[in-house]
Design a protein that fits this description.
single chain; 334 residues; alpha+beta; seven-stranded mixed barrel; five-stranded mixed beta sheet; 25% strand
Length: 334
């Protein structure tokens, strides 16, 4: 029987991939005939590294290729523990995989190497916290950690995953569930008919998960001050067409999450900062008002997001969110 934590982690991975599809990422389902780095096996996808093949099922390629850079390939791993924090052993594995994949490149004197080359990025998403050792090690090794705990706009998805227990499913093949969930989410298929094809005891719990993903529909990986990736979750019923390409914003911290508001005070997004950044400005893991102001000005003065256009399919626009410095000065003057 599949471990319940592994099963919940798989569901969270599929939710993240589904939400990121509108942020310029193309999910990899099957190997490209021209890409011999990825293999399809009975247990899922495997990527060839310098020393071994690594099973990684949550893979997405970014559609923009910056000048003087290889294409970016995102490797996502998700953990959905009920209470326990994610430990350093998970990060150690990610570091080893990332190193092996990025080193898998050889040159030959006889001919030009035609194998595609990627810049791999590894991100670990978690519904619970991370241990301090895991945080420090990940920060030092350029592994991105995204803590989704207590994220208001993601809470329904996280709750629906936690409601699925070991008595809900019976199949031992995690890959069967993964591809089924992925097809249903992406293609808006008849959920119940497809779910009946697998041995599922409580279909309503799976339907709740699927509906919660569809209701949120999209999230975005943005860059703060061109340096720090942050995971932006849009507010319910947010119409992205109403956000101008250059928008002044305000940023608030409510002791649990960060929120981005427009100048009218309307919620746009919620997000969590990279943990090491947060703790750099916090005192004993408590963010004082003064330090929060300094953090906003130093780290979050500019945030860039790539979102799809509503007019044309497969076209995107760049949104620049700029911190309203007049608003910030008014807070400082209080």
């Amino acid at each position: 029987m599949t471990n319940i934590n592994n099963f919940r982690g798989m569901l969270l991975e599929e939710a993240i991939l589904f939400l990121l599809r509108n942020s310029g990422y193309s999910i990899i389902d099957y190997p490209d005939p021209n890409d011999d780095l990825i293999q399809k096996t009975s247990s899922g996808l495997k990527i060839s590294g310098r020393g071994a093949c690594h099973q990684i099922d949550a893979i997405a390629d970014f559609f923009i290729n910056p000048p003087f850079s290889n294409p970016t390939r995102l490797l996502a791993e998700a953990k959905c523990y009920s209470k326990n924090p994610v430990g350093i052993e998970i990060v150690r594995n990610a570091v080893g995989v990332l190193k092996d994949l990025n080193e898998f490149w050889v040159t030959r004197k006889s001919k030009i190497q035609t194998r595609p080359r990627f810049d791999y990025q590894y991100t670990i998403f978690s519904a619970s916290s991370f241990t301090k050792d895991a945080e420090r090690y990940a920060y030092a090794q350029n592994i991105h950690l995204v803590n989704l705990q207590n994220n208001k706009y993601l809470q329904h998805i996280l709750d629906s995953i936690q409601n699925i227990n070991s008595e809900t499913f019976f199949s031992e093949k995690l890959s069967d569930y993964r591809m089924l969930i992925r097809d249903i989410l992406r293609n808006k298929l008849n959920d119940r008919d497809l779910l009946y094809t697998l041995e599922i005891a409580d279909i309503t719990k799976f339907e709740d998960f699927i509906n919660s993903c569809r209701n949120l529909n999209a999230s975005y990986i943005a860059m703060a001050n061109w340096k720090f990736p942050i995971f932006l979750v849009p507010a319910p019923n947010l119409n992205l067409d109403n956000i101008k390409n250059k928008t002044k914003i305000q940023i608030f911290w409510d002791d649990n999450n960060w929120y981005i508001l427009n100048q009218l005070g309307q919620n746009l997004f919620s997000f969590n900062l990279p943990l090491e950044l947060f703790k750099l400005y916090a005192e004993d893991e408590i963010l004082t008002e003064k330090r929060a102001i300094n953090l906003k000005e130093a780290v979050m003065s500019k945030i860039q997001i790539i979102i799809p256009t509503s007019e044309y399919e497969d076209e995107y626009r760049l949104i620049n969110l700029e911190l309203d410095l007049n608003w910030l000065k008014a807070i400082k003057a209080r």
